[in-house]
């Protein structure tokens, strides 16, 4: 009897094991893939009338250029298209787009009525045979067609990557012309891609380090107009400016807005010592944050406004420190070789971008807010002044070439270190500051 | 040697000996098991082994439910109001040998009054409309293609085909001699000419051929024969038999488990198409487990791909990571993965964990 029971048990166990194995799916794990631009197609948008034909083509080209410029996407040329999109509501022939390996497809239509332009668009996931979220439309004036294209690109970028875009944004920077020993500098503002450049000041005085307010309507900058560096606040829309109050014989520079736009943190040099201060813009009341014999400068708020990262040489060489926004003890976060400076907190709050000088070369790098996982993204004769894109994915900075006729220009780089590319400006440029996304 | 150790050794030897030899001294008869069986008739067996009957459906198909117009739930930001014309500010006079040109005031880019209106976008029809009703008369069954010297009319419905036409004979009540009953027979339907399909009148052919729907209709049309209710299974035993018979018809080769090389081949094939270049930083922190079924030819069934689980990110990032994984499965499986057909049962259902740990930005 016992043998029978044992045999029965073993038999049942075997059967259960076999049945279990038969019902179990095959399980595998993939830990390595490929990193390459995602192929996409943007056929020219469909014009509702002949008057919209040229604009429809231009809009589609700007959208494609925005997406391709990120380095995350690769546009499939129109010559490779198998089928054309002739109607905005026509069914999509997904097989034709799969055949050319287009993984995302953007279709759109443009309507022009007088000075009014309306753009409709859809984003298709080709390999799912369906649309990514419902279509949208934007309306505006004919003059603002580039902004509409940037907005479409932002929406497409967001739907594919899952994070916000940065195309409908502007950059304020210092436009530079002339040789190094007679360089003329003036503030300029442009679209993120270098279009629509306009100048905010003349070149009668040296201007430095412009910084956007959180809403993008004001700019802080440092001017040597009075002979000493002074901080100015400029209303971008009205081109009106005023000087922040400071005592005679002092120098104030390196200003930056707090996340709520009510306070400015800056460096004040008095009696040969430089410390950090904050000032309420409305009341003009200042508060001292640091009190050390060393040089503290280049402060930058964290996105929540609770902390400040800054540069200090209190340890003998310029390094990065983090402290509370109300002052107090600072904690050093940079410990690598070389000199660190111009730290900027990411809009996401997870990284700090900085300039590093080591062994005769300059680098733009990023690190965690505790100083860990430092990564250098660039290396050249002179790279400095990083500024974050609104979505925290791209960094714009200044690159200057060697020699008396060396030229300053603006570059962007992805935080992965890929996709390093120049920003086209009419003249040289330096000290870029990226605005938030426009409303 | 300790007493306890001795006792333990003796006990173990006894136990091992009993385990090996205990059964030899048993003389109990082998157990006699009785199993209950059910006796079914040949008609019941035929009914069970018959194909599964078409489910009962209504005579009139329900009206097609039109898809609802998608409501675009998009946050509609306020359209930026046109800003007033910028005031030109004169720069402060600067003493310079060569006067600088006046700075150009910022002419604010005329805000395009971009408004994110919810577009009333009509979804395009995925397929052209299908007219299930033929436009013309329903074609009659083609006549028998048989040439005969004399056309013969259709026999009466109950007549059996025969070369000799025989009238029906039924037993007449009250007759002196009962006549044997005789079934009616008639010659088969015949015609004296061949009418090909091309020579048929236009009325018989439909004007256009409706394209079959992309998917099998969920409620198939019911035929007259299929509408006849089938007797329900008399017992659960018959249901079990029918299920067992149906299951045995799939005939999926199980085969031995996949070797490491075969698994690596599949893993490598999928990883070639797993493109994380366009994923957000958060999506690169998200691990997703994706399950799907494979067809016998090694191609993934796109409709079966689904996300089982995710970890390390938000729902949005998980969705982005899942879409990248889905594209990888479909793209590299378009021509079929190289898997042994004799082991189809081993790889019919697959679960893949896409872990981007090594792909993160470092």
Topology readout:
The complex is a heterodimer of chains A (439) and B (362).
Chain A: H1 2-23, E1 26-30, E2 38-41, E3 46-47, H2 53-69, E4 73-75, H3 94-99, E5 104-113, E6 116-125, E7 130-131, E8 136-141, H4 145-161, E9 170-177, E10 184-191, E11 198-199, E12 207-212, E13 218-223, E14 230-235, E15 240-243, E16 251-257, E17 263-270, E18 273-280, E19 286-288, E20 296-301, E21 307-312, E22 319-324, E23 331-332, E24 339-345, E25 351-358, E26 361-368, E27 375-376, E28 382-388, E29 394-400, E30 408-414, E31 421-423, E32 428-434
Parallel strand pairs in A: 2-4, 2-5, 3-5
Antiparallel strand pairs in A: 5-6, 6-7, 6-8, 9-10, 9-32, 10-11, 12-13, 13-14, 14-15, 16-17, 17-18, 18-19, 20-21, 21-22, 22-23, 24-25, 25-26, 26-27, 28-29, 29-30, 30-31
Chain B: H1 3-21, H2 42-49, E1 115-117, E2 160-161, E3 185-186, H3 236-248, H4 260-271, E4 287-293, E5 306-311, H5 315-332, H6 344-347, E6 349-354
Parallel strand pairs in B: 2-3
Antiparallel strand pairs in B: 4-5, 4-6
Helix pairs in contact in B: 2-3
Task: Describe what is shown at a glance.
Chain A has 439 residues and is mainly beta. Helices cover 14% and strands 42% of the residues of chain A.
Provide structural commentary.
The complex is a heterodimer of chains A (439) and B (362). The termini of chain A are far apart. Chain A has four helices and 32 strands. In chain A, a hairpin with a 7-residue loop joins strand 29 and strand 30 (408-414). In chain A, helix 2 (53-69) packs across helix 4 (145-161). Chain A is globular, with a radius of gyration of 27 Å. Chain A has helices at 2-23, 53-69, 94-99, 145-161, and strands at 26-30, 38-41, 46-47, 73-75, 104-113, 116-125, 130-131, 136-141, 170-177, 184-191, 198-199, 207-212, 218-223, 230-235, 240-243, 251-257, 263-270, 273-280, 286-288, 296-301, 307-312, 319-324, 331-332, 339-345, 351-358, 361-368, 375-376, 382-388, 394-400, 408-414, 421-423, 428-434. With 439 residues, chain A is mainly beta. Chain B has 362 residues and is an alpha+beta fold. Chain B has a domain at 260-359: 2-Layer Sandwich (Fusion Protein Consisting Of Minor Coat Protein, Glycine Rich Linker, Tola, And A His Tag, Chain: A, Domain 2), CATH 3.30.1150. Chain B is 20% helix and 7% strand. Chain B has helices at 3-21, 42-49, 236-248, 260-271, 315-332, 344-347; strands spanning 115-117, 160-161, 185-186, 287-293, 306-311, 349-354. In chain B, the strands form two sheets. Chain B has a three-stranded antiparallel beta sheet with strand order 5-4-6. A two-stranded parallel sheet of chain B has the order 2-3. In chain B, helix 2 (42-49) packs across helix 3. Chain B starts with a helix and ends in an 8-residue tail after the last strand. The model of chain B is unreliable at 51-112, 116-120, 124-141 and 216-234 (pLDDT under 50). Classes of the chains: A mainly beta (439), B alpha+beta (362). At the A-B interface, helix 1, strand 1, strand 6, strand 8 and helix 4 of A face strand 1, helix 4, helix 5, helix 6 and strand 6 of B. Chain B: This is Energy transducer TonB. Chain B: Residues 50-240 are annotated as: Disordered. Chain B: Residues 221-236 have a biased composition (Polar residues).
